[in-house]
Amino acid sequence: MDVSGWSILADVLVLLAVAAAAGALCERLRQSALVGYLAAGMLLGPHALDWIGGRAEVRLLAELGVALLLFSIGLEFSWRRLRTMGRKILFAGLLQIAVTLLIGTGAAMLLAIPIKAAVSIGAIIALSSTAVVLRVLASRAELDSVHGRSVLGILLIQDASVVPLVLLAELLAGGGSAREVLVQGAETVGGAILLVGVFYVAFYVIVPRLLGARAVSRNRELPILIATVTALGSTWAAHEVGVSPALGAFVAGMLLGGSTFAAQVRADSASLRTIMMTLFFSAVGMYAAPRWILEHWVAVLTLAAAIMSGKALIVWLILRRLRTTNHAALAAGLCLAQIGEFSFVLATTARRGSLIGEDVFLLVVSATLVTLVCSPYLVAIAPRVGAAVERFMRRGRRPADVGQDDQRERRDGALTRLLIVGFGPAGRAVAAAMRRRGLAVHVIDLNPAVVHAASEFGCVAHVGDAALPEVLDHAGLAHARAVVVALPDPRLAVRIIRLVRAAAPDTAVVVRARHSMSTAALRQAGADAVVNEEDQVGRRLAAALLALLKRDAAADAPGDDGRESA
What we know:
By secondary structure, this protein is mainly alpha-helical.
């Protein structure tokens, strides 16, 4: 079949169109849109309608989608913030991979599978889905929760282990001697160290200066192009040195996340990321063989249930041993219970090297798809299940705290944070007053020079367009007690108010209105309080006039000695 550029474009269009329709149908049925994307790939894949000819090219784009997701997540986690996770999470990630691999290998050997194939199956099971879990956690504003931080740390360790696990699978498959694998591993590590050095210079020095340049800030298109080149370039560079593209993209995003431009870069790359992520889930669905799954559904569901319960239990026990609370440990375990997208790479490598047969490959792939379908629901209920277990285990000792630690953390943060959109004279005055009251003030403004001034003023400042939901999310809208919109443009203010109301309906919104005619529209959009400049100016003018009249009246009044009246 012709796989020219136009043919690949047709494949992508068909896949996106069917995925959009299936995702919309699932949302209408109150299911996750991810299920629809997987179903679209299953329907169009080689085991069903077989309408996608350039499957290899589509899967390459899908891998790029995962990398872009990790890039956007990295923007949320500067290096300083990542270090606060501590060694405990690093140890938990390494321990989770090792324990899951060993238990998976042992279970496979009990089923009379040869040891090399068993080890490859254990490696496949050890990984979880970065794409699914982080996407759901981010949409629920739980990335910064207690269990969210644990999940992120473990997922990053898993992503870092992808390259060694692939090398292990190739060694088991006879793809090279142990010496060749060690040499290849050393080259990969050396390339990774060099890549981090290049990224450090690029994203700490070059890119911030480019984005801060006056010529770039005046042209709205140039920051978008720089953001796209940054995201795609870091992914390509990681691939070229033999590092996981997703991990390379995360490191790039994390280094850039320490700058004030992180919010806008994340927003500018959002559309491309959404398209690539949809392709990713659809491409994963193409691995499935619907007829084979129906014929072996008992084995598929049994294996999927065993994997999800086993992985959740392993993560729970590891985090509990590391003194994580019961509910946070169990919530993290449920979030990481699935098999990940990079496991398809390991499974394909094992099949190509004749480590596993076609039936075993289809069984593992089918069980993986089942766990991915269940994942959005498990991530969503994880905090509630963790809280319920915590209440049960505390029964008889002390009253259960209905709110979990991570919810309480978010609530406490909401009591001390203010978000100001626009840092002109009005925004600066609000920030000064609120800082005197001890509130943490976060500022969003499109002008890099203004953002720099806000940082020097003592605020946490972000360069970005607050009319984009990604910018508001990045600036901490989910944690804000109140939002002040101090922009002079009423149409822009209305858009921002609506976004705030949709994402944080309980957050107080105070907005500036330059003219009386825009007051009604701002209130209708959802503002709790509108400060009308014309009214304020009118009151100040009246007060100034009254002060002058009183002064003149006092000057014209008769003296105390009564000479004028005489």
